[in-house]
Amino acid sequence: MENFLIILTILASLVLIGSILLQPGKSAGLGEIGGGAETLFGKKRARGFEAKLALLTKISAVVFIVSLLAYNIVIKL
Predict the structure, then answer these.
(1) Is CB count within 10 Å lower at the N or C end of the chain?
(2) What residue segments make up the domains of the chain, in order of their start?
(3) Residue 76 in contact with residue 10, Cβ under 8 Å?
(4) pLDDT digit string (tens) for 31-72?
(5) What is the pTM assigned to this prediction?
């Protein structure tokens, strides 16, 4: 059981690192001074690849935390 949780933690951490590194940056530079005109004109790109990466990041973060908590509980027994 301990080995399974260690392998799960390592895999979740690698997926988490990869999904974070593949996500595009959110900084728009001086364009943000204008007051968010991108959201008014529909330039939201959260429906494609970025949305899948965001979901993968959330899932892998939850798996990472749960596997570490479960590993600590198993070790204490």
Answers:
(1) C
(2) 1-23+49-77
(3) no
(4) 556 555 555 555 555 578 888 999 999 999 999 999 999 999
(5) 0.73
